[in-house]
Amino acid sequence: ASLVILNPNASDLLPLRKWDKQNFIALGKKIILENPNACLVISGAPSEQKDAEDVCAQIGSSKAVSFAGKTTLRELLTLYTLADILVTNDSGPGHFSALTNIRTIILFGPETPTLFGPVSPNSHVIWKELGCSPCVNVFNHRFSPCKNNVCMKSITVDEVYAVLKSYMD
User: Fold this and answer.
1) Who has the most CB within 10 Å: 17, 40, 111, 163?
2) Which residues 6+ apart lie within 8 Å of 13 measured at CB?
3) Which residues pair with 103 in a beta bridge?
4) Contact 103/122 with Cβ under 8 angstroms?
5) How far is it, in rounded angstroms, from Cα 67 to Cα 65?
């Protein structure tokens, strides 16, 4: 069995970093449909619990459960050691995962993985390197005028799934 963690959240300070919730739902459905032995955990902070539970409900499978707001950081790291793969926006979990051996797929958009990328050799970054990216950086005090995160919208479910599937195989 494969245990996959989806972290559809990112700090409310930088909502531009979020891959659309519908993409996480579609990815979750695809994982369960194409991998009969896979189980999903939706993770998130207490403030993200409602959104995570909604993602879980829309995936609509008994093989998906939300742990958002239900774990301490220590328990989350223990979960990472037990799980096979983490898919996350560029946020804390992508960095915390470096403390474990979990294979991690981190979705970057408005910030550059060149400066803020993961340190784990088990991480795979998906970043489109658009001309407008990174629009959030140390030079603009992490404030971006962007209202349309094309950098995140251009990452497809199939692209993320292909990396995830290569980890599962």
Assistant:
1) 40
2) 142
3) 85
4) yes
5) 7
Q: What is the pLDDT of residues 19-52, one digit of tens each?
A: 999 999 999 999 999 999 999 999 999 999 999 9
Gap between the Cα atoms of 146 and 130, Å rounded: 13
Residue 77 Cα distances to 51, 58, 82, 92, 161, angstroms: 21, 26, 9, 12, 23
95 and 16 in contact (C-beta within 8 Å)?
no
Q: Please, are residues 32 and 40 in contact by the beta-carbon 8 Å criterion?
A: yes
- 0.85 cut: is pTM over it? yes
Q: For all residues of the chain together, what is the average pLDDT?
A: 90
- What's the pLDDT at 169? 82
What's the pLDDT tens digit per position in 76-127? 999 999 999 999 998 889 999 999 999 999 999 888 888 778 888 899 999 9
125's enclosing H/E stretch is strand 123-126
